[in-house]
Specification:
The complex is a heterodimer of chains A (761) and B (330).
Chain A lengths: L1 E7 L5 E7 L1 H5 L3 E6 L3 H9 L3 H5 L8 E2 L5 E8 L2 H10 L1 E6 L6 H4 L23 E9 L2 H7 L2 E9 L11 E7 L3 E6 L6 H4 L24 E4 L11 H19 L5 E4 L13 E9 L5 E10 L6 H6 L5 E8 L13 H17 L4 H7 L2 E2 L2 E2 H10 L7 H13 L1 H4 L13 E10 L11 E6 L2 E6 L8 H13 L6 E5 L14 H28 L26 E4 L2 E4 L2 E7 H7 L6 E4 L23 E10 L6 E11 L6 H20 L31 E6 L16 H5 L3 H10 L5 E2 L3 H7 L4
Parallel strand pairs in A: 1-12, 8-29, 10-11, 14-15, 20-21, 27-28
Antiparallel strand pairs in A: 1-5, 2-4, 2-6, 3-5, 7-15, 8-13, 9-10, 9-12, 13-14, 16-17, 18-26, 19-20, 19-25, 22-23, 23-24, 26-27
Helix pairs in contact in A: 10-11, 15-16
Chain B lengths: L4 E3 L4 H11 L3 E4 L5 H6 L13 E4 L9 E4 L2 E5 L4 H6 L1 H6 L1 H8 L4 H6 L2 H6 L5 H4 L38 H8 L3 E6 L2 E6 H4 L18 E8 L6 E7 L10 E10 L2 E10 L6 E2 L1 H7 L4 H10 L1 H4 L8 H18 L1
Parallel strand pairs in B: 1-3, 2-3
Antiparallel strand pairs in B: 4-5, 5-8, 6-7, 6-8, 9-10, 10-11, 11-12
Classes of the chains: A alpha+beta (761), B alpha+beta (330).
Chain lengths: 761, 330
């Protein structure tokens, strides 16, 4: 095994002018050195391995650093990790430092120094020099809405930069078998196969060095995904790992058959993020809490910001605008997204309640709806379209209030001092559930052998246990015992059997519909076999076909329960699925379901059909004690309620809720990446300095589940993969306000900011 | 991480001889939680702080391990793990705030390895000191980056030249307990009060205590406190697992009828050394504590010199002193 490590930039923004690797090359144990200008990667560096990578400033081995500790410039391959590190220190680099920008509001200014010119700007409205994206959304007429309001309030919310919260550095082992076959072991949730393969449209035509020649077929790549726990997020590693894995493949090709393990520096986990933002908000409301207009402008990274508020309220007039400019703080892509939309929504409900001296749960219910329609309208929609007539928000709020004792404990702001001298506070937030879509992009295959149905597909194990949901859904549809349905993770040919990577919030909602459809088809196949004459094998002696297991019956007269096929009219007439399937082993026992498009409820471009309304809700509650002398806030009680639509695996859902609660509260109360303003160096880019909370920081969350069956996935399910963490990322401010009567809208709400909000410093 | 030679002496004399031989390139090693997995792993080094080539492991020296009780107090070997210190019945009885402080350090796994000597002598957590791109005073450079950089966690008191804070929780408790250190050198051993053990940046910016390259902290002696001594320990940290103090407070004092007689108030995380809040002690002396605590803690404002981002620590320290004293009284 050879090891490979990449140089990390000591500067926030600098170009490599020249590089001398002679001393490193001469070091014992160094096997290869690949520089940024090598023909094997020159094309990747110019274009990005895939389009998304270029948009997110992720090139394979760029010659310009865009942020401190940016992996770039040169990679060393050696006999050990330590030799790699020593060799990297021997490489002499002449840098040309550039003016960097750390503050996004500064970067938006027309006279800001231009940064990252090589990185694609995302939309044509983007302004020079550094704006990547400018977005605007308006529903209704906010001017009219403000005119109708009894009260208009304005405030600003700030959220600091935080991390994707990965705990292990990414690594990849690559080995070529001959010139054609590539084996990969990837610590990543992504499937980068397409971009390594020449059959991916758009990539096969690139002229690359010999070592970087694309594969000729996906089927020649074997992927192994080790366990992927402790990740939470979205696009970042999809794009990042594509460049990373491709580099590993190139290095391995140059190593002539030896496996190469490419290791990223763990500090890179702390150099990314999308959470930072400044929201300038203006809200108009009637005295009864009905919001007539909501408007906010966000300076921040990627993600629509009013989409969830539009999805889940009756607010008739909504306007959201956004400016995103590059800063030299790391990859700006979607890590733990969703909180951009949740935090201003959460603050809006609580600020309106506070201004009007109302209970925030009442304000949330008052404004519940879908895309400007109130809940009465939604109820009619449910009735007319065959949905259960359920008010999800009321159900989750009622459950949460009861669990935390809201009616007994909630009080006027700053009204309850505890015997220990601290101030008692209650916090609440609610928003819609996601992911609520169905089936797009997930593929499945079912094979019946020896009475056991096997789900075959490729996915990485994130620890969220979507697998149980897959098995339960298939067992339920087939009428099989759960132990007779198993999951076989495939490590190759993932282009055919791909169980919705990366998993998480997509895993269940997008994959299960495919599996349900495949299971229904397989069931019909099994019942069909049960009424057909049994095939005769050439060595069986008797040449006459054997009679069917259920002679004279039609498939529709049969059913399956507990892995046994039985006659509906005479349930004692039964045969095991195993026996029937065994007789037909030579027949086609597989249901292949390579559907890459939509299942139902989605338009052909994959966007939600405008007539599909998001009706499932989640509500979260916390109880705090605020020490007004020190600014320290202790969370003493946490209640999470999620309407997951359909519960496949209660423990899996509760695990997501609990983990999400810790992550969300961590973002709300603690997490912030700190950069040196003079040098652009990340100051707390490690597990000790970066204050990522753990389960010891908060009390055990009470996790409650609701089943309304209002989702669009199989059985009306919603995802619960990331939404708890995202939605609780703003909850601290409401609780601190209830405790002290002061708003602390500068997240994370650390003791210094609480003291500032209290006017003490 | 750079390679090194490891030595495993079994007596203090052997250890000191080896340290004397290696000079600035040698370091005493115990649990290694800071030296190996922090300083050396992260290659924290500079002109005035060479990377060690030789590590002298002191954990095989019987004299440096365990808690012993004598008529005048308790003695704790410097190589005793924090877990053992926190669990010691003798420590709990004589110096409970040391047990609390030891228990508040890092995580269980780290406390099982880390020693009290290592905790006292660990290097600062300042992110400029730890960062490889900052040639600060403490590494032999010529600048303190905290002055103009992000100084959210830096010193609010006594931070001239270098504005790091002393990171040790047990050191804060030991100063409050009026403890002493036995230090071995090639010339023999000497006892140093912890009041004099820690040195500020003006004295020698390259180190945080009196130990020279060829010296070793052997053990710690805590005098038996006067009957009825009130003690308490508090630590504010950003998260409950392996975090250093934003501010910590250790108090040990005697009281008569609610009136402060004599005692010590010591702040951790506030200054380059554990800081004894004499101004607050003086403001309380001979006075009813409950009635005067708020005014007394306000005296801290007169001595504090916060930087642009850490003034909150002054308020936090004031509040924490008040809470800790009232907790001790209760």
């Amino acid at each position: 095994m050879l090891y490979a490590k990449i140089l990390t930039s000591p500067y926030a923004y600098a170009k490599i002018v020249s590089m001398d690797v002679s001393q490193a090359k001469a070091l014992d144990g160094v096997r290869d050195i690949l520089k940024y200008d090598d023909p094997d990667i020159a094309e990747d560096n110019a274009s990005g391995v895939e389009p998304a990578a270029r948009q997110y400033n992720i090139l394979t081995l760029p010659g310009t650093s865009d942020f401190y500790q940016h992996p770039m410039g040169v990679v060393v391959v050696a006999d050990s990790e330590e030799i790699c590190e020593r060799a990297l220190k021997l490489i002499k680099v002449q840098w040309e430092e550039q003016s960097f920008v750390l503050d996004m509001e500064e970067s938006l200014k027309s006279d800001a120094p231009k940064v990252m010119p090589q990185v694609a700007r995302l939309n044509p409205k983007a302004k020079e020099p550094n704006t990547v994206m400018t977005e605007e959304f308006e529903h209704g007429d906010v001017k009219k809405g403000f005119a109708e309001a009894d009260k208009v309030i304005e405030y600003t919310v700030r959220r600091a930069w935080n991390t994707p919260a990965g705990t292990e550095a990414m690594s990849c082992v690559a080995q070529w078998r001959g010139d054609d076959f590539l084996d990969l072991w990837i610590h990543s949730q992504a499937n980068p196969q397409g971009n390594l393969s020449g059959s991916e449209p758009g990539y096969s035509g690139f002229s690359r060095g010999k070592a970087a020649q694309p594969m000729t077929s996906w089927s020649k790549i074997t992927l192994n995904f080790p366990y992927q726990g402790s990740w939470f997020g979205g696009l970042a590693w999809l794009a990042y790992s594509t460049a990373f894995v491709r580099l590993a493949a190139v290095l391995a090709r140059r190593a002539s058959g030896k496996p190469v393990k490419l290791i990223y520096d763990e500090s890179n986990f702390y150099n990314n993020g999308d959470d930072a933002g400044t929201y300038v908000c203006k809200i108009g409301a009637k005295k009864d809490g009905a919001i007539t207009a909501a408007q906010w402008h966000m300076v921040g990274i990627r993600n629509p910001i009013v989409d969830k508020t539009f999805e889940c309220t009756s607010i008739p007039n909504i306007r959201g605008t956004q400016d995103w400019a590059f800063v030299n703080k790391g990859h700006q892509n979607c890590w733990r997204h969703g909180s951009h939309a949740c935090v201003p929504h959460d603050v809006m409900i609580n600020r309106v309640a506070a201004e009007l001296e109302l209970d925030p749960t009442v304000v949330a219910l008052k404004n519940d709806g879908c895309r400007g329609h109130d809940w009465e309208w939604v109820t009619r929609y449910q009735k007319e379209n065959g949905f259960p007539e359920r008010w999800s928000l009321k159900e989750v709020i009622d459950a949460g209030k009861k669990a935390i004792g809201w009616d007994q404990k909630w009080h006027a702001p700053g009204a309850k001092k505890l015997p220990n001298g601290k101030m008692h506070g209650m916090g609440f937030m609610s928003i819609n559930e996601w992911d609520w879509t169905a089936g797009r992009g997930s593929l499945g295959c079912l094979v019946l052998r020896d009475g056991v149905a096997t789900i075959i597909g490729s996915r990485c194990d994130m620890g969220a246990d979507a697998e149980s949901a897959y098995r339960q859904a298939v067992a339920s549809e087939l009428g099989m015992k759960p132990e007779h349905v198993i999951l076989q993770i495939k490590t190759s040919d993932v282009s055919t059997y791909d169980l919705a990577p990366p998993g998480g919030s997509w895993g269940t909602t997008r994959t299960v519909p495919q599996l349900v459809m495949a299971a229904r088809e397989l069931k019909q196949k099994i019942l069909g076999y049960a009424v057909q004459p049994r095939p005769v094998f050439w060595f069986a002696g008797a040449m006459q076909p054997q009679p069917p297991f259920f002679p004279g019956k039609k498939p529709e007269e049969l059913d399956i329960k507990d892995s046994e096929i039985f006659e509906k009219a005479n349930p004692s007439n039964k045969k095991s699925v195993r026996e029937v399937a065994a007789a037909f082993w030579g027949s086609d026992p597989a249901i292949s379901h390579p559907v890459s498009g939509i299942i139902s409820g989605l338009t052909s471009d994959g966007k939600p059909d405008p007539t599909l309304y998001v009706m499932g809700r989640q509500a979260h509650f916390i109880e705090v004690e605020v020490d007004t002398e020190t600014g320290v806030v202790d969370v003493t009680n946490v209640v999470c309620v999620n309407d997951v639509g359909n519960i496949f695996n209660p423990e899996g859902c509760e695990g997501q809720q609990y983990g999400g609660a810790v992550m969300g509260l961590s973002r709300s109360f603690k997490e912030e990446k700190v950069y040196c303003p003079q040098t652009g160096v990340a100051l707390n880019a490690d597990n000790i300095g970066y204050p990522l909370a753990t389960m010891n920081d908060f009390p055990k969350a009470q996790t409650l589940l609701n089943e309304s069956h209002l989702g669009y996935s199989a059985y009306g399910a919603y995802g619960v993969g990331e939404n708890v963490g995202a939605s609780m990322a703003g909850l601290s401010a409401a609780a601190i306000y209830n405790a002290t009567g002061k708003w602390c809208l500068d997240y994370p709400t650390t003791p210094d900011k609480v003291l500032k909000a209290l006017g003490k410093i | 991480m750079k390679g090194f030679e490891l030595y495993e002496p079994t007596t203090v004399a052997q250890a000191v001889t080896q340290l004397n031989k290696f000079g600035a390139r040698g370091k005493a090693l115990a649990g290694g939680s800071d030296l190996v997995s922090g300083i050396m792993k992260d290659r924290v080094a500079g002109k005035g702080m060479p990377e060690p080539d030789y590590l002298v492991d002191v954990t095989a020296i019987p004299e440096m391990k365990g808690v012993k009780t004598g008529p005048s107090g308790i003695t704790i070997g410097a190589a005793t793990t924090l877990t053992d210190v926190a669990a010691s019945a003798d420590v709990r009885k004589t110096a409970p705030i040391l047990g609390d402080a030891a228990l508040s350090v890092a995580s269980l796994q780290i406390r099982n390895l880390a020693t009290i000597g290592g905790n006292i002598n660990q290097r600062p957590r300042c992110w400029f000191f730890r960062g490889e791109n900052f040639a600060c005073y403490k590494k032999g450079g010529d600048f303190c980056y905290a002055v103009s950089g992000d100084n959210t966690y830096h010193a609010i008191i006594g931070g001239e030249l270098c504005y790091c804070v002393h990171p040790s929780d047990t050191a804060t408790a030991l100063v409050a307990l009026n403890a002493g250190a036995r230090v071995a050198s090639p010339a023999g051993t000497r006892t140093v009060s912890f009041d004099k053990y820690f040195t500020g940046p003006r004295e020698d910016v390259l180190r945080e205590n009196v130990l020279k390259h060829n010296e070793l902290l052997v053990d710690i002696t805590i005098p038996r406190p006067a009957a009825g001594t009130k003690m308490a320990w508090s630590k504010v940290k950003e998260r409950q697992v392996f975090d250093f103090a934003v501010v910590s407070v250790a108090v040990a004092f005697t009281v008569e009828g609610g009136v402060w007689r004599t005692g010590r108030i010591v702040l951790g995380g506030a200054a380059p050394t554990p800081y004894r809040a004499h101004t607050v002690e003086e403001a309380l002396a001979g006075k009813d504590i409950q009635a005067n605590i708020r005014t007394a803690t306000a005296a801290l404002k007169r001595t504090a010199r916060p930087l642009n981002l850490n003034a909150y620590k002054v308020d936090l320290a004031q509040g924490l002193i008040e809470r800790t004293i009232l907790q001790a009284l209760a």
